[in-house]
Model the fold of this input.
Amino acid sequence: MPRLPSPALALTLALACAAPATAAPVEVTRFHTPETIALLGRGAVFVTGAAGTDPQSLQAAPWIEAVARELGAQGWGFATAGAADRVVEVRLEQETVRHDRARGPVSVGVGGSTGGWNSGVGLGVGFNLGGGPKDMVHTLLGVVIRDRASGRALWEGRAEAAEKAGAATGRTELLSRRMAHALFEGFPGRSGDTIRVK
Done:
């Protein structure tokens, strides 16, 4: 008589056979002018966290690394803070929206906000918060490329995504790379346009 698989093995097999989770699209908006793009060039950059961010922290480091990886793919080189042509500031904000069946979506505050960014960009832009009962984690990745000597912003961009809490597609190592890649796809992009990158 054949042996039945143990409950643990049955669960493992079921998960292995299940369709992979589909990542939510990333909404991307970039800002620049013809003048700033002409000045931007492709020199050496120093990538760090926005003001108030510890770039070495376990929270911020994966996002900074993901942005640096995309800049390298765009042809930028890297230098120390005092020698770089441009300084790249990376900002991260995350917020969990808890869905209460009786009252609808309830924000439970910002978790993991790093740095300050004077762009007036907030979380939840462009997302429908009135969906199903699953809690959602909303993530904002903001990047500013500045001229090191003058501090002038030459390019700004933001990427936003909403993933179900606990979803594999929302794991930091995956989400940071996916959002950074979306942000720099077609760089520098059309200023002011919002696109959805799957």
